Amino acid sequence: MAESKAKPKTAAKTVTAAAKPKAAAKPKVAKPAVAESAVKAKPKAATKAAPKSAAKPAAPAKKAPAKTKPGVVDAEAHYRMVAEAAYYIAEKRGFAPGNHSADWAQAEAQIAALHAKK
Questions:
Q1: What are the angstrom distances between the C-alpha of 104 and each of 72, 78, 82, 84, 117?
Q2: What are the residue boundaries of the structural domains of the chain, listed by start?
Q3: Which tens digits make up the pLDDT trace of 44-55?
Q4: Which of 19, 27, 89, 92 could join 103 via S-S bond, C-beta 3.0 to 4.6 A?
Q5: Is the overall model pTM greater than 0.85, yes or no?
Q6: Is 102 helix (H, G, I), strand (E, B) or coil?
């Protein structure tokens, strides 16, 4: 019989993927803005550059604010005007508690009269 010269495999040399220690992650290095090969290479005369406008789509147009008639105040501005007027009315009476509803009503009347003049 012929003897085989093949060496038997030993369990000590076989290493599984789970048993291997993981290598530390390499820190990422920032790439230069221009590739080195582009700096060293000679430009080709026959190539054309693509137009820049074709690279990016146009930005969507912004809507213009709605135009209102002169003298017309939106609801938010009206509310702020009434709140400010009510504050000054409360300040005149020394901020005594219990009259906030009356202050607000008086402020609404003042702002309504102001808008009626316009």
A1: 21, 13, 7, 10, 20
A2: 70-118
A3: 555 565 555 555
A4: 89
A5: no
A6: helix
User: Buried (b) or exposed (e) across 78-104, using 16+ Cβ within 10 A?
Assistant: eeebbeebbeebbeeeeeeeeeeeebb
Q: Where are the beta strands (DSSP E) in the chain?
A: none
Phi first, then psi: what are they for 96, rounded to 5°?
A: -65, 135
Determine the Cα–Cα distance for residues 85 and 114; give it in Å rounded to an integer.
11
How far CA 86 is from CA of 82, 96, 98, 112, in Å, comes to 6, 13, 13, 13
Report whether 78 contacts 118 (CB < 8 A): no
